């Protein structure tokens, strides 16, 4: 088997409208499609990241909360590459998003920081 690339990442949210606004208006992701699945009482919003990777945003009735402390086994965070981390942090801050202090990866010497989506999912900015 040869894996070519990541096809998509699925995220389940607790408040669909709030998360849709966050991922499209705050992060600026482009909507590919939006479907309401009546049988599952669930929205599925397909989002594009720079025409490369797709994020599927799902809503389900009463999903369980995400364990965070201590960190649980599973996907730890989702990281987005940016050209200028200072500009990206300023843009997020101007939109009311709390962003952690910018740090430097001791292995790569690259700058990075974390912030959260409306459900507390850790998101990372990593400077190219």
TrEMBL record:
CDD domains for the chain: VOC_Bs_YwkD_like (cd08352)
Pfam families associated with the record: Glyoxalase
Gene3D superfamilies for this protein: 2,3-Dihydroxybiphenyl 1,2-Dioxygenase, domain 1
Keyword terms, alphabetized: Metal-binding
Keyword Amino-acid biosynthesis (UniProt): no
Protein name as catalogued: VOC family protein
Keyword Mitochondrion appears in the UniProt entry: no
Upper classification of the organism: Bacteria, Bacillati, Bacillota, Bacilli, Bacillales
PROSITE patterns: VOC
Species whose genome carries this gene: Metabacillus halosaccharovorans
């Amino acid at each position: 088997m040869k894996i070519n690339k990541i096809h998509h990442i699925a995220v389940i949210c607790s408040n669909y409208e709030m998360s849709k606004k966050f991922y499209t208006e705050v992060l600026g992701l482009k909507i590919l499609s939006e479907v309401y699945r009546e049988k599952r009482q669930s929205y599925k919003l397909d989002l594009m990241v720079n025409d490369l990777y797709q994020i599927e945003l799902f809503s389900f009735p009463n999903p369980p909360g995400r364990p965070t402390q201590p960190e649980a086994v599973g996907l730890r965070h989702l990281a987005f590459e940016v050209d200028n981390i200072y500009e990206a942090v300023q843009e997020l801050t101007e939109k009311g998003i709390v962003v952690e202090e910018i740090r430097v990866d001791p292995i790569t010497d690259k700058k990075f920081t974390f912030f959260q989506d409306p459900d507390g999912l850790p998101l990372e900015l990593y400077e190219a």
